[in-house]
Specification:
heteropentamer; A alpha/beta (338); B mainly alpha (337); C alpha/beta (321); D alpha+beta (501); E mainly alpha (286); B: 337 residues; mainly alpha; MetI-like fold; D: alpha+beta; 21 strands; globular; binds adenosine-5'-triphosphate; binds magnesium ion
Chain lengths: 338, 337, 321, 501, 286
Amino acid sequence: MIKDHQTAVLEVDRLVTEFPTPKGTIRAVNDVSFQLHQGETLALVGESGCGKSVTALSIMGLLAHPGRISSGTIRYGKDDLLGYSTSQMRKIRGNKISMIFQEPMTSLNPVFRIKDQMMEVILEHQDLSSKAAFDRAVELLGMVGIPSPEKRIMDFPHHLSGGMRQRVMIAMALTSPDPGILIADEPTTALDVTIQAQILQLIRKLQEKNGMSLLLITHDMGVVAKMADRVAVMYAGKKIEEADVIECFENPCHPYTRGLLNSIPSNKKYKGANRLEAIQGFVPNLLELGKGCPFTNRCTVAMDICQAAFPSQAQIIEGHHVCCHAVNPTDADKGGRP
Amino acid sequence: MIKYITKRLILLIPTLFGVVTIVFFMMSLAPGDPARLALGAHATPEAVEAMRHELGLDRPLHIQYLNYLKQVAVFDFGKSIKTGEPVLYELLSRFPATIELSVVSIIISTILGILAGIISATRQNSMIDFGAMFAALVGVSMPVFWLALILIMVFSVGLNLFPTGGRINIRLFMDPLTQFYLLDAIVYIFREGDFSYFLSALKHIILPAVALATIPLAVIARVTRSSMLEVVRQDYIRTARAKGLSERTVIYKHALRNALLPVITIIGIEFGYNLAGAVLTEEIFSWPGIGRWLYSAVTARDIPAVQGGVILIAVVFVLVNLAVDIFYAYINPKIRY
Amino acid sequence: MNPSLVSVKHLKKYFTVKSDTLWGKKSILKAVDDVSFDLYACETLGVVGESGCGKSTVGKTMLRLHERTDGSVWYKERDIYSLDRHELKQVRRQMQMIFQDPFSSLNPRKQVRDIVAQPLRIFNQGTRQEIQDKVDHLLEEVGLNPKFKTRYPHQFSGGQRQRIGIARAIALEPELIICDESVSALDVSIQAQVLNLLLELQEKYRLTYMFIAHDLSVVEFISTRIMVMYLGKIVEQAPKDTLVDNHLHPYTASLFKASPDIDPRNRNDEVLLPGDVPSPLDPPSGCYFHPRCPRCMEVCTHTYPETREVAPGHWVACHLY
Amino acid sequence: QKTLVYGKSQAAIALDPGVVDEGGSSIVVSQIFDSLLAYEPGGTKVIPALAEKYEISADGKEITFFLRKGVKFHDGTDMDADAVVFSLARQQFKDHPYNQYGPWKYWDTSGFKDMFKKDGSLKKKGIIKDIVKTDDHTVKVLLNKADAAIMVNFTLYFTSIVSPTAVKKYGADFRKNPVGTGAFKFVKWVKDDHVLLKKNKAYWGEKAKVDNLVFKVFPDATARSMALIKGEVDIIEPPDADNLKELEKNPRVKIMSKEGLTMGYICMNVERKPFDNKLVRQAVNHAIDKNEIIQAVYGKLGSAATMPLPPSLWGFNKNIAPYTYDPGKAKELLAKAGHADGFEVDLFALPVSRPYNPNGKKVGEIMQAQLKKVGINAKIVTYDIGTYWDKVDAGEFDMCMTGWSGEPDPNDWLHRLFTAGYLNSARWKNDVYTDLVTRARSISNVAQRTGLYEKAQEIIHEEAPIVMLAYGVLTAPMRDNVEGHIIYPSSKLVLRHISLK
Amino acid sequence: MPFNPENTLWYDHWLQLKQNRSALLGLAIIGAFVVVAFLAPVLATHDPLVQNVSLRLSKPFENGYLLGSDDFGRDIFSRILYGARISLVIGAIAIGISLTVGTALGLISGFYGGTLDVLIMGLVDVMLAFPYILLAIVIVSILGPSLNNAMIAIGIVGIPRFARIIRAQVLAEKENDYVMVERSLGTSDLELMMVSILPNCMAPIIVQVTLGYAGAILSSAALSFLGLGTQPPTPEWGLMLASAKQFVASAWWVVTFPGVAILLSVLGFNLFGDGLRDILDPRLKD
Ligand SMILES: Nc1ncnc2c1ncn2[C@@H]1O[C@H](COP(=O)(O)OP(=O)(O)OP(=O)(O)O)[C@@H](O)[C@H]1O
Ligand SMILES: Nc1ncnc2c1ncn2[C@@H]1O[C@H](COP(=O)(O)OP(=O)(O)OP(=O)(O)O)[C@@H](O)[C@H]1O
Ligand SMILES: [Mg+2]
Ligand SMILES: [Mg+2]
């Protein structure tokens, strides 16, 4: 299949997700918009707690109590997923939009055999006999590189290693003959480097094979560089920059994105250096955010305006957007979107 | 599996040895002279003296202990001072009554408790949840003996729905084959088509079983609920939802299977407590079981009976818990063997 | 080269573990299996390897936080395992450790000032007031505002907590600090801050680091020498540049290949290391790496290779060399 | 098929009449076995039973029983001299082959047989020397010394005649399979729950009027009386006074009662201060309001006692004015005795329910409050019943509750309870008194004896070693369709008289 | 710098507690219970020990008895008020015994491990082999029935629970790197146990104390009910029920009110303990 980077299969628009807590309401996702195109890989990066997982769960409609989507739309094809009924949503999940999670060790149900867990999805979404479903499950396990799948399928999850479990998770996410979207939430962070490389390679191969779109959530710029077509950078619940992957690495516009790249020790520029260019300060508490740009307190180019208002989105080149007063000093006057 | 069970049984030996030792020395410390008790109110001092000799109470304590160990090793727990019967026989003859009562009450509490727990968990923070959990908390806070009295006051005296005590209407002259009256009464249904035996046995067991079921019911409901809530938070439940399964399947298949694992342990423990700790309930409902027997042995200071009874009950209790452990291991795929 | 500060000779650490089967059979887990290396003053020795390969155990056994199974650890001509309690205390003063999880390594019920003051107090470093002044100084040193010293660890972010741990570690001005995955749990931006801090402190106090991590890029950046471990054994050991440019062991090569490059233009789809990391409870015969090794030979399946010095300071354990 | 269900408080523990010593078993045993002699129904006169008559030799050392002929045990074997000798000898002789199935509590403690020391030497000679068969229907009991009081024992259940065949057959299990000659046969026993008996159609005497007799256990008095109200049982052992009041209100229940030969009293340990002082003892007698205790605890189960023997018994001195409840007087006496500020004592509360004291703890609580009013601080102490008697008999108490269910002879009360011996719990000794009651024992003239006993009572009243509390009233609550029940003053329960309407 | 309570972990817990309705209800009940216990002499309408046999078994509001009188004509209301004192004391002492002994055993056992651990836990296992109430009954029957002995028995019976909970907590806590760090600094065992580890075990201890308090009240009532605990005429609730048994058919108030008192006080502690557990120790849920 070909990548069609023009058709948006998923369109998140001005999504706001909140968690009311005793100490106040946390806006985990604050006015985030992005599009995922047919067949492409969009990487969502950002520091821990910036709202990546919550964004993904919002899309799947799987927010944990007490989380709620307070505004925005999530368009899948022509429909707004937020308007879907539970049963409509169920038809999408695991079928059109699948998700795999960070912790392969705990993401499989310990009391069911792999067989049952795999066949369950197949039978749920496809009109197959259980024999056919079983065969399909074995086939899928083979496809994700599990040796002697017909034997392994009878195992319980605890019989498998972490890497194998993650493969099972991937196989389970790809049961549909026509998987539309795969959301992978830090699929390799819990794994060893060598295993991580295997899994990433596997995902890439599968994506090439069946042309699905991948929303890859990660905090590892290395993974982004290796996997992504486009990158959206989040900071404290806000999307602050979005660009084509090469553009993002070569011409990062937001001071945070630049800092992030500079913080990586394997950055070529550190050959022989003995200091990193680190971002100073710490990620702000989501409860104590003001109206302004959340990065202000760590920013080297902060201005007065940064305290007062969150910058609107500016376009650098086609497909490269950034939200920063320093990049787009005039937009405060316009008082809205460019 | 056999190997595991054997190993667990072997591991029991030190515990049981400890039990026997503790019980023996505790009871030797107890005031009250078994010889005196054996002879009754106005026994002459000479007769008491002779009796002490006969019972071996005039020998040094460590000799008594060694003798006792020797006896216990061959399941000889001595004879009850009060009745002169072997303690083991006395206990076993009361055991069916207690088992029947415990089983009925644990069935009641398991069914209702799990149901209440699931309903509460699936409607977390709703009025139903709040109400059920408050009720469960009241249940665990309930002085059982008081509840028993209130049950009698309301259902037996006030509404005259149930008898006040006993196991069956005595005038029916039922022939107990198994000593489990409900089962025996079923025989009458098949043999003679006579339901009155069964109904009577049922009517007799309901109030005590309900009283005895309160705490296990409340505990099971609470454990089921919290276990369920815990499980629902797990990653694999999120996975199940992400697969597009219906909420029903997610809860009743994926969550419940996992959530019930700890509940089984609790049911076992509560069953063990019921078997051994139904003293108050049996006392109030004149239920001829081991709790009541042991209590009267304690108050009468029938020392061999108390020693033997406590040891045997501890053994039963430990074995029930062991059985539950083994069952748990057996049904839990997370444990390999 | 600087003189050797710590010399580890044939160190072994075996754990007896109950397997998690119902039978509870006991088996031997060779967490560290015959490991020898030297730590030279003022250097940073990086230790990399996959999870469970025994990196932390080496660190802990060096400090005698675990008792060894066999071998010796020499600190300035003295075998740590022959010291009595009191002498050991004095030696440990010179060797500190910083752990991965910045939460579990700080007592949550103690105020920051008590945490940092504890080593000073135990080693009687002055009066209460002096100790408090020292604490203020230490906190400033690691970039924390001393006015937060009455706070509790949970009121700090991960990076700040790691700084508290560092402050405690340098309180007694040790010679050696073992950093066990000290930056792994941190976000990159924070990780960079902490790495900078460690480098600063090293320069200032002439510290020696043993830097344990599984992230090759971090080790590569901070170390002067790198040691690669696989299943409790050292497979390769060399000065950083040698290792980066001229690594010999196939496992080292795979590690380098697997750790992603941050250049999106450079997406090569080379063949990766297949298979899973074997369990240390049941290591493969011969060279532990042979089932996954792309260059496996017959000899590898039955004989563990000897460690050879192929170039000055470059040790490798592989039949190929 | 008529079934009589009797609700009792204690479970039976053994059904061999020789080993029984408590109410739970004895009332069952009494229906299954007969003794050689019996009391007349409802009275205290001794009448023949399995022995048609008896003779006592002139020196009083030989009792000859002439047995009733044609009496059969429930197992069909004959009741004959062999059976009688067997029944008694197994309790008497250590070397009897069936002696091992004891302990023969009552026999052992009645002083019938010789007692030996640990080293085997004789400690105390027993009353009975030997039991011999003269012919098939005649048995002689030979005594070591004359004792007229022994005859009463042959009415009691522990001298019941058991089937030797059955004893030999069951051995140790005879106590679970009793075979006697009584009006009811043993059928089944479910421990702690009930015992089922059925009518002995071949009974030698007045045959039972119901077909089945069930003894059902209700340890709790309230449960027992509720079972009666609901008709689950026909007749019950008396419950608490308060339950009785409830029962009285119920139209389907009737309550029979009769004064029994039983009384409850409080002993003051005269060997201890301050009860060595007569004035203090009298003060306590004035300080205790028996009526309040009876109202709160005994109810219909007792009446206020004045003298240490029941008023229905001959020899009772009607002329002595009982101590009145008068706290003022009590205080006065205490002041006179030098205890104006009061003192502290231990009050032993009887831990079990007895016909003469249904609830020792309650009695104790009330007494405690009453004594407090005159400045005496009583601390209620209680033990298990065994320890309780141990301590009481050893004199390790200040005040204790006790009581007596005696025989219809003043000697059994005035001599037995207040002269040297372990039953003299107050440990009171008075030579004049002892002389009076010992003299009365050896005389057979009732009028003469009466005079002596009345004098003795004056002394005991003045000396006041005890506080008389209550005479027990024997009560039998039953359904209104229960007819013909007879209460025996000696507390023996005989159910064969009952018929059901 | 002055100590600021807002900094401590406890402050967070307090914030959470304020949100927990049932825990607050429990706290309120416990508060009321304590107030009643302290003010019993002020609130009582009668002397709890004074008998008036002629007015025995008066109905509520009859003859000036708010909740009626018992079979000695004592005021039930006043007796219940004074009963709160007894229960409060019983709970405190019994828990005190279980807490100190149990904590010491659990701490030593968990901290040192090895043979000591095997021995202590063996003992604990043996104690746990006896069902709770049975062990209490046997202990009291040996020591003799009295208030003090009942407290001791309940205290002893509670030891294994504390020992186990604390051992488990110590074992978990020992895994934390800070223990290893502090040990590597040369901290003494005693300091490690008492200063470093024990405070981190407080959460389950506090929860267990609250729940154990409820259990102690209940057990002491049960023992008294069986005649093995407090002795008359002490106004203990279980004891009041014991003598009220016979009035189930005739005088409901004698049976009802002491039971309600037990239920309420136990419920108070359970509600509070439950809430505390949710807050302090979410892992420990039943
Ligand atoms: N159930 C919840 N209740 C309260 N706050 C929550 C909840 N789930 C998430 N949050 C908050 O939402 C914010 C975003 O969380 P999210 O899990 O999306 O972060 P993330 O970017 O995925 O981080 P990580 O890299 O650590 O996975 C966090 O600050 C977190 O505190
Ligand atoms: N106290 C212990 N008891 C038993 N086994 C242990 C213990 N500590 C470590 N191990 C085992 O020893 C092996 C090496 O552990 P170690 O912690 O040194 O690995 P590591 O290289 O530090 O791994 P990671 O990167 O996950 O921290 C592992 O298999 C581990 O399971
Ligand atoms: Mg996340
Ligand atoms: Mg490690």
